[in-house]
Amino acid sequence: MTHNAVVIGGNRIPFTKSGGPYAHASNHDMLTAALDGLIARFGLSGMRMGEVAAGAVLKDPADFNLTREAVLSTTLAPDTPACDLQQACGTGLEATIYIANKIALGQIDVGISGGTDTTSDAPITLSDPMRRVLLEASAARSLGQRVKPFTKVRPRHLSPKAPSVAEPRTGMSMGQHQAKTSEAWAIERSEQDALAVASHHNLAQAWNDGFFDDLVTPYLGVTTDTIMRADTSVEKLAKLPAVFGGPNGTMTAGNSTALSDGAATVLLASEEWARDHHLPVLARIVDAEVSAVDHPGGADLLLGPVAATGRLLARQGLTVSDFDLVEIHEAFASTVLATLKAWADDDYCRSLGLDSALGTIDRDRLNVTGSSLATGHPFAATGARIVPTLAKLLHARGPGTRGLISMCAAGGQGVVAVLEAV
Amino acid sequence: MSALEKAFTSTPGRAIAKKAGLKDPPRLRRGRTWPQGALVLASIGGGTLAAQTLRLLGRSSEHPVTDGGEEPTPGYGAPIGALVVDATHLARIEQLEELRAVLRPAVKGIEKSGRIVLVANRDAETWEARAVLRGLDGINRTIAKELRGGATSTLLHVSTATTADDLASTLAFTLQGRSAFVDGQTWSVGHHQAPATATTPSPLDGKAIIVTGAARGIGAAIARTLARDGATVIAVDIPAAGEALAAVTNEVGGIAIQLDITGADAGSHLAALVAQRGLSLYGVVHNAGITRDKMLVNTDSARWQSVLDVNLAAQMRINQVLLDPTTEGGLEDGGRLVGIASTSGLAGNKGQTNYAASKAGVAGLVIAMAPDLSDRDITVNAVAPGFIETEMTGRIPFVQREIFRRSNSLNQGGKPVDVAETIAYLLDPASSAVTGQVIRVCGQNLVGA
Fold this sequence. Notes:
The complex is a heterodimer of chains A (422) and B (449). Chain A has 15 helices and twelve strands. Chain A is of the alpha+beta class. Chain A has a domain at 174-212 and 286-421: Peroxisomal Thiolase, Chain A, domain 1 (3-Layer(aba) Sandwich), CATH 3.40.47. Chain B has helices spanning 3-9, 11-19, 49-56, 95-109, 127-146, 164-175, 217-228, 242-252, 266-276, 301-322, 343-347, 353-373, 391-394, 398-406, 416-427, and strands spanning 38-43, 80-87, 110-121, 152-158, 185-189, 208-212, 232-237, 255-258, 281-286, 331-340, 379-385, 438-441. By secondary structure, chain B is of the alpha/beta class. Chain B contains 15 helices and twelve strands. In chain B, the strands form two sheets. A seven-stranded parallel sheet of chain B has the order 8-7-6-9-10-11-12, with helices on both faces. In chain B, strands 1-2-3-4-5 form a five-stranded parallel sheet, sandwiched between helices. The chains are: A alpha+beta (422), B alpha/beta (449).
């Protein structure tokens, strides 16, 4: 690498439960709002960025150029190019890696990564038969021909198709997949609830401390993350019924992420550019790795990142205990707990082609300002939420401190990155 | 908008209101615009400061028409734009007759949004001269009330040491549309060793200025006006106002910081941002303020404390950090501090004891600070807005609001930009001889001293 790609900072809008205050906001609106706050915080108005890369997992076909259009809705210079990028729940982190790589290679000096998602304003499409009828009718040359296709319409064709979060190859939802993993790795309900409670309490503490004052900009009158429950407790969560894994399941609405709306962005630059422009340099993006597992073949869907973590650490000559802070995306509390168990499991790690187990970490280094269970998880936004949060935390701990990000994503995939405070 | 307000603002409603004597208020000339008609210059007693200042500003002037008792009273052919009277050598009661003779035709013949500006020497020595000086104040306030069509009157006090360089920015401000809602006021211009010469259209070019409470209302107008004049605006507001703050910041190409100014470390946060961004801090506009209105008999400690803390104590804490010469990112020598007082503070206002205390306190503060900071060439001033049309005053019930907004010599509420323009004038590097002043932007509100 020829340049240090560094995190200058970030901005997101508060995350909310889907169908809530952002019910009428589109991905375009939310991404624009997140960019606006970033531009204001760092005084970027009128400036040309090398590139902006962002994405959405649930994307309306009209948003074929989502990021570029959002850029044009901001006060960034209109000659700022942008691309849409998508890797399921890893989108925000993958977009960050993409921009960081371009910076490292000297292709650009400064760029923005991000992600946005709304399950409130998810695109709803016509059923396949109905779509064929309309296409046939529009291709017709006479009135008769035009009417004829509609005789084939049956009532069931009229019901629209909402996007599904089920894995296409297994037909199982993510929760159902994770329920299998929970059982296989013997992840206790009480552990999951405790992790969820810690997430809420850590996030609430960070809000109280003003930690997010320079990471979040209010949107549509929402000033804090609304899924957060500062007063939740293990006792309260213990009362919730299982939603995945059958009647004896351990996964509840309390220890699974809620469907959420939100958007997040990260400002990245070469260290030289950041210093020339008198901008803060929080942490450098050291390295990153992606991986995937054969979940149709029975592998644990959400343990995808373990292999990436192992390969990345080996390449960097690091072990998990070298990290001052670790961010494991909380798709489900059980995902985080299974990931930690997998890291410590020699046989499992060898089965992934790694030399040995990755080791264990002190739990007080994990998700110290809360993660997706408390914050919410607007799919593509989460990676872009974690990167500036971790960069700020590392910077406060001093130069050289390291952080690890591990994110699972649909399709049995994993995206992992290492940051180091500057 | 209430049904009553809708009826009032409808076409028939306006016609009825007009018949009842509630005329549409005059449209005020605003911005960096000079009066259209001739600029008339008169000197009573031979003072030349005003003439020198107008020359410095590149404005040509005409001789006054005087009323010598002829029938009919002599007048101007076409409406005049402004009358500037150099009264720096006016020290005797009998000389006031000369002033009357100049004022009579001018007041009669002045254009809409025209200007009367009296320049007087505050260093009057004799008893008579001091009496006359105060007499000018009475004349200024009264003419302001008699002028129509948005024309205003201003009395500028100068010292014996004041030069044309000292006075230029102030005279330009009073004559231009920027002073649209400043009427019947008196303030003072002193002397500075090396004032920046002549005013330019963007006097704040390259200067970093902090504006607190910048997300909306008057604060947003201040940010826009300072940016228009070339400043790099560091826009501050509480985190909850971040969305509006970002919009204003991006509009003016500034830098936003979400910050509660009452926090103990607010000053050091601001200084750190200035230092981080490699800027030199030229000015701070302490605009952030809150109201917690209640009659005194219902005012509890919480309402009292919060208003005093946000409106007064917070800016003192921030100033303390920014004025410390060892603070990296602190205020530069030659810098500017501007506070926001209020006519409620100067005159008192029912239901606002806490607010009046804080805002009168701001006036007291700038007067106290100014002399102590003069050796660093830092000026400290305040503006005192009267009724300004904002979201905040928009929440006053309609009838009460209509009474408030018309209770001044210009028969209308001011705009946020009117306050902002006055602040921008105080921030102008050429205004270095103006310090320790409190300028009301109130259209000569009927209440208050």
